[in-house]
Amino acid sequence: MTLKFHSSLTKDLSSMLDDSDDYNAIIKVGVDPNIKEFHAHSNILRARSPYFKSAFSNLWIKNNDDKMIEYTKPNINPDVFEIILEYIYTGEVDLTEELEENILGLLIASDELLLEELFESVQEYLINKKSKWVEQNFILVLHTIYKLSSCKKLQDHCIESICLDPQPFITSENFLSLDKDILYNLLKRDDLAIEEIIVWDHLIKWGIEQTPGLGNKNNIKWNNKNFQALKKTLNGFIPLIRFTEINSADFFDKIRPFKAVIPNVIYEEVMEIYMKNTLPKTTFFPPRRGMIKIDSNIIKPRQSRIIINWIDKKNSDYIRNREDTVYKFNLIYRQSRNKNSNIRDLFAGQGAILIFIKEKFTGRIFGGYNPIGWRGYSRYQYLSTIESFIFSFENNEDTKDMEIGRVLSSSHAIYDCSESRVVFGKGDLKLKCDKFSAYNKGTYECLKRGSNGVEYEVEEIEAFSVVNLV
């Protein structure tokens, strides 16, 4: 039998860090005026960090007159290094009260110091616990981590999050300072969910910002030298634009004035497509698959992507590609717009229907997908399908705790009647006017947010017809 005393070991090592006077290493971190000196034990640092095992070799360090090891790390913030020492001595780190900038700095420092366990945990913490901050600081995070191959998980998280809802990022002022390699890898993605003319507008703005001598943003006053300078800046980016997704009016107003920066072979082919309505002859990037949009006021674009994946029976985090089905979502009902319209009559004969319901007091979101539609018959009947499902989100930011309940009893999947209500199953999700309920009736997998015997008040309802374009 092995007796373990980890708690007392951690306590004793922690006291060595805080109180011991037998240290033999002085480590100075930070830059003026924020420099701090830390005292540590070289044997513990060597044992815990492969970096310090090498750094404290005779070739790297210097000893003062007292045989004390002296070492400097100006590229690490003192607050970050204090966290690192706590980890090295105790194996514990509490990040709940730490500034997000320090957590990002801890990620980079732990990678440099070869603290693999700490590095992986901090990366996961930023993704899972600080995703909102990461989203608000994409430029800072990407510029900090993009050259580090070890940070690929966080890189992918940032890029995929941007692709889900790129317009706030691309239209922000910070976008103009984006690193060219990051921008290139972003624009080449098929899942960038944004209109192509917006990409073009802000690529031009980015190019102007990156090109010396183009202080005058009004290209009307540019000479040929100005255009050639911009063309050089944008040389690798122009082929990434899906010109065939830009309508002729926008092409005339927004692209034609920059004809000089577009390679002639591309410009001429695009002109031929517009003028003759022909297909591309050379290789153009296909339409971005991320541009499947649900124009909803209830859910966010990243939740749209999840629901589209559910329609295709894919996992929530599936990344769509050019081989996947393309859908069009046509808004047929919005309660705040249509007021007291008979929703049942509006839905009849519309084919596949996707419904969103926002609860009035909590902001929770419920909904359902009916792939066969409501028929509009006067008699009451159940319609059969194996493709329908119901779902819920905690709010319009929720992408982690969403629930889906797929149909279990296909013969009772959809209830069709002439009354002003829509029903999934035997009442698993039921909507009528300004009230709805989510019951566990067994026709669908149970939604934990549902509550038997309780009707919720509606804040907003939206319904879309779902058209398969392939």
Note the topology.
Blueprint: H1 6-19, E1 25-31, E2 34-40, H2 42-48, H3 50-55, E3 62-63, E4 69-73, H4 78-90, H5 100-112, H6 116-129, H7 131-136, H8 138-145, H9 152-164, H10 167-170, H11 180-187, H12 196-210, H13 224-234, H14 248-255, H15 264-276, H16 301-311, E5 327-334, H17 335-338, H18 343-347, E6 353-359, E7 365-370, E8 381-383, E9 389-393, E10 403-406, E11 414-416, E12 422-424, E13 429-432, E14 435-437, E15 456-468
Parallel strand pairs: 1-4
Antiparallel strand pairs: 1-2, 3-4, 5-15, 6-7, 6-15, 7-9, 8-11, 9-10, 11-12, 12-13, 13-14, 14-15
Helix pairs in contact: 1-4, 4-5, 5-6, 8-9
The total of helices stands at 18
Q: Multimeric state of these chains?
A: single chain
Number of domains: 3
Helix and strand content put the structural class at alpha+beta
The total strand number stands at: 15
Percentage of residues in strands: 15-25%
Sum up the overall morphology in one term. Answer: flat
- Give the CA-CA distance, first to last residue: 65 Å
Characterise this structure.
This protein is α+β, with helices and mostly antiparallel strands and 470 residues long. The protein has 3 domains: 6-147, Potassium Channel Kv1.1, Chain A (2-Layer Sandwich); 165-276, Serine Threonine Protein Phosphatase 5, Tetratricopeptide repeat (Alpha Horseshoe); 298-468, no CATH class. The chain has helices at 6-19, 42-48, 50-55, 78-90, 100-112, 116-129, 131-136, 138-145, 152-164, 167-170, 180-187, 196-210, 224-234, 248-255, 264-276, 301-311, 335-338, 343-347; strands spanning 25-31, 34-40, 62-63, 69-73, 327-334, 353-359, 365-370, 381-383, 389-393, 403-406, 414-416, 422-424, 429-432, 435-437, 456-468. The strands form 2 sheets. Strands 5, 6, 7, 8, 9, 10, 11, 12, 13, 14 and 15 form an 11-stranded antiparallel β-sheet that branches. A 4-stranded mixed β-sheet has the order 2-1-4-3. β6 and β7 form a beta hairpin. α4 packs across α5. The longest helix has 15 residues, at 196-210. The radius of gyration is 29 Å and the shape is flat. The mean pLDDT is 87. It comes from Rhizophagus clarus. Residues 23-97 form the BTB domain. This is BTB domain-containing protein.
